[in-house]
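Recap from last week: sequence in, structure out.
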Amino acid sequence: MNTRKISLAITLAMSIFSPAQAEQTTANEKSIQALISLTLSRNPKIFANNQEKFARQQETQAAEAQFFPTPSASIEKADNRPRLALNERTDNIRIVQPVFTGGRLTAGLERATAAENIANINIESARLTLSEEVIDTVSSLKNAEEKTQVLEKSLKKHSQYLEMVRRRATEGQSSQADVLLAENRWLAVKADLLGLNNEQALQRIRLKQLCQCNNEEIEVTLQHKAMVNPNLEQLEQLSLENSTTLKRIDQELLILQALEKEALSAYSPQVSLRAEHSRGNFTGPDNSVFLNINVSLGAGSSQLRSINAAEFRTQGKYQERDAEAQAVSRTVQSFFQFLETSLQRQALQQSSHESAMAVMLASERLYLSGRKSWQELMNSAREAYQAETLVVDAKISAWQVQQKLLVTSQSLDVYLSQNRP
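Predicted structure tokens:
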């Protein structure tokens, strides 16, 4: 096969599921995006991550509240009333307003906000993981279904050839041993078919559990549009921008920077205003306003160590980010290369399958004319349908890796918004 034919075959393989075909799907069939959306709306993993998000939101609100006045009240009462006391107890009402904290409150808010962002990123990461699980499971299910169809054709053909061998034995042209051996070939195909039926059942159970769906809801068509002029460099850049791991590391860096600011704030004076109303047991009612300046001069070496530790952790986190960025790029490169290889393999396997089918039909004619043995006849059938299963493997693999490449290089919401089966 020349280069032009291979290129044409690859183009056909990428366009094997056209938009026109998508309109011919049954009402029960849906796109992979629709099934993923259904899974994300029902899977308990997402609900669990949502609870963590709500908790982080409360912590952020608590950090914001630190900027506002803090009221407090106290009541004190002596066991025995002093002789000169005007009242039996002392009542105090105070309101404290931070004025300057050296960045401590701001750092606390930044840390709480980053933690809330991490909770949101964890939700997105869980959604991505579930989406990839759905893609993998659907791929395994469709692979088993299409291979089952191939083996059903193979079993039918082997049954036809077995009857031909039996007729030859009845006519005395073949021995009974040949019939038994031919039956073994038929049984081997039957066993493979039963194995695929079992694989289908297992993948359906897994998909139903994953999606919390029934049998009708998991019917998916693999029709899709091919990626238009995919560019590896562009895909890498998009994947780096949308990587949840890199986003999480960025927020962890903000947390480390906030911790460093908090440690530095210990060297700054803490200034606050306090308005106080007192009703004392000796002095009577009294209203006062105080300016509080608190400077902590102790444990300076300890705070310095904390600052140094935060700086080292920050440097380590930057290195971790670089390593993760390289891992994301390698993943995209692997997906891209695997996609190209799968499409090329699909084109070559399709050509091999067509040749094997032609050999099988020729062997059938030669067997009927007495120029081929039954072993050669059944061998040609086995090779023809094995070649077809390899076409199925390549086709499903190409679809699977293309979906993963799309999910990796785009935000999940963008991927799900595409009505691309």
